[in-house]
C-alpha cells in the first residue's frame, strides 16, 4: 500500500515537473525594454519614495476635506457640483470643521494666517484655504475646488518637492496655487502657471490664499501665453535656463491634444523630472492606436495607453491614478516620473 502511494506521488511529481518545464520552454521571452538614457533630474533625487499605491482604483474615496456624496449619481452630482463653492457648502451637508450647525454664511470668517515656520500640516492648510474661500464667496465652483484638491492630494507625495512646478493650461490656477501652498518649507519653490488667457478669478484666488498662506507671495507667476510659445521660449533659453531646478509639470483637463502638448512641453522643452496630466475630451485622440485596442478598451483608454507608451519611450516610469469619479468621469491621471534605473531595467542591461 505504502509502495503504491510512493509510486503515485512520484508519478505526480514527475508529471508536474514535466508540465512545468514544458511550459517554461514554450513561454515566449519578455520583450526587451526600450534602451533609454536617464539624464537630468529624476524624482528620486529630491524625494524619498513613499506611499505609492499598490493597486489601481478607478474611483478612490475623497482624500480632501470637501467631499461629494457617494449616493448621488454622476449626472445629478455634476449639476450640483457646478455651484459656486460658498453656495454649495451652504446647501449641502459638507461636514467641514469650520462650519457651525445650523449653517449660517455669516458665521464663516477668515481664518488667521498660518505661519510657515510652525510647519502647518497639509490638512490645516487645506482647511484654512477652504474656510477662506467660503468666507469670501470666492469665484470658483465646488467641482473645481474638489478637482484641484483631489489632484493635489493624489500627487503631492509622488511628484515630491521639486523646485519648479509648471501648471500648464492652468485656467483659474487653483491647482498650481495648492502646490505652492502645500510646500511652506520649500523656500526656493516657484510655481509657473501658463495659459493662453489669464482669467480674472486667478488674482482673486491668489490674493485670498496669500492671506492665509503668506509664503506663496512671490512664489507664483502667471504667464498669459499659449503653452507652445512658452515651450519655445524655454527651448530658446537652452543652457541659460535653470537646469538645476528639478521641474514637475502638471496639466488638468487640457482639452484633447492639448494634453499631448503638455507632455511635449514637459519632456522636451523642460526636461521635467515628472509630469502628471488629467486628460479630457478624447474624441480623435486614439486615431493612431490599432483599431482592436480601441474596440477592446475604448477610445479613452486607448488614447491614454498610447500616451503611456510614448512617455516610456522618453525614459519615464509611467503609472495611472484616479480622482473620485463623483467629481468628473474624466478622472484618470497619467503620471510619469524619471527615476533612477529600476531593478528590472538594471537586470536586463546586465
Ligand atoms: C478646460 S480648461 C482647464 C483649466 C484648468 N486646468 C482646470 O482644470 O480647471 C482648459 C484651459 O486651457 C487653456 N488653453 C487652451 N488652449 C491653450 C493653449 N494653446 N495654451 C495654453 N492654454 C490653453 C484655456 O484657456 C483653458 O483655461
TrEMBL record:
InterPro entries: Methyltranfer_dom
Signal peptide from the UniProt entry: 1-24
Transmembrane segments: none
Protein name per Swiss-Prot or TrEMBL: Methyltransferase domain-containing protein
Domain Methyltransferase: residue ranges: 153-287
Pfam families from the UniProt entry: Methyltransf_32
The organism of origin for this protein: Phaeodactylum tricornutum (strain CCAP 1055/1)
Record keywords: Signal
Listed Polar residues bias regions: 45-60
Superkingdom assignment: Eukaryota
Region of interest (Disordered), residue spans: 39-60
